[in-house]
Amino acid sequence: MSDGTSTPTAPPAGGQAPFWTAVRLVARREFTERIRDRGFLVSVAVMLVILLAAVAIPAMAAKGGSDDFDVAFGPGPAQQPLSRLAPVQAKLLDVEVAVKTFPDAAAAEKAVRDGDLDAYVADGHIVVHRDLSNKLAAVLQSAYATVERDARLAAQGIDTAAVDRAVQVAPLEKTTLDKDADERNQRKGVAILGTITLYGMLMLFCMWVANGVVEEKSSRIVEILLAAVPARALLTGKVIGIGLLGLLQMALTAAVGLTAAKAFGTIDLNSAMVYPAALVVVWFVIGYALYACMFAAAASRVSRMEDLQNVITPMSTLLIASFFIAISFGQNGGTLATVLAYVPPFSAMLQPMLTASGDLAVWQNLVAAGLAALALVGLMAAAARMYEGAVLRTGGKVSVKDAWGTRN
Predict the structure, then answer these.
(1) For the chain, give me the number of helices (H) and strands (E)?
(2) Is pTM beyond 0.85 here?
(3) Which residue has the higher pLDDT, 267 or 408?
(4) Is 345:318 a contact under the CB 8 Å cutoff?
(5) What is the structure's pLDDT at 294?
């Protein structure tokens, strides 16, 4: 029975494999075991379903909101000019109105109820089944106002044709100073979806690393493993093996997401779109390495799953904060986002977002990656020392001071 203290346990005597050989063996073990795990396969399936839904639903909704309408007009002298003018007015609003004819009002109203007709205009009323599209309402109201105006002018002896010519003014043309605005918005959409995916996968795979460390420690399997491989090699191999699995899933997610977006017409798939997606994958590797080291070092301090959440809370909070900063500030740039884009581990979330928005160039991506690599070297050394000092200490939670001071 544990008395709440942490006691070191020496590994059994025996020779250990060379460092990189041991890393390769551990990484292969982690990769093969996890890829066969049903939980991993389910997570991949769920991730792809969510991704496809995120791409397909907006595209289908946009197509559902069609700008093509079928309209019928009732009998009467006022309805004939209205039926001629409505399609012309519609073109000014980028809307298509097709005029349909029916023998009487009852037949037209039945077509409206059956969904074969969007609206029936007669006797100063627009008859619809349930809802009237705002665009169609604007077209019909504008056409009706024009016909009524001409009728009143004609009643006063004013030449309506001359009035029509006088008011036929070409609409203002839009000139966009930023020629890449549409493409930038598409890149930003890719980056937002990629950042959400990046956050979810970083949390998932770092938790796998932490759970794996605690499982091996609580079952005492780690003592057997350390008889064959050095502690640092065990940590490095675990991070690399699970990371390769995450990289495989991230690459698959990016490929499926871009292909689906292209198929649904959400984006124009070109090199400008591929770069933000590739950047998300690259920063997954960097961000995962940074966070996984921290999660593993923290997890090595406890021997029970019940205590795991307590020790990884600081890292989880940091990851969540990075995500919210990227979503909240990354789209619009600003001093805070630009500065944190170079600070590991915030850079993992902010670099793809700011690059897609056009705030960062490739050389700035490289600078941030270099800084993250330097931070990773130091963090890996610190995490390895913490791991070595705590992974063989059983019982209660190992303090940071004890884990740092003990070398196995």
Answers:
(1) 15, 6
(2) no
(3) 267
(4) yes
(5) 92
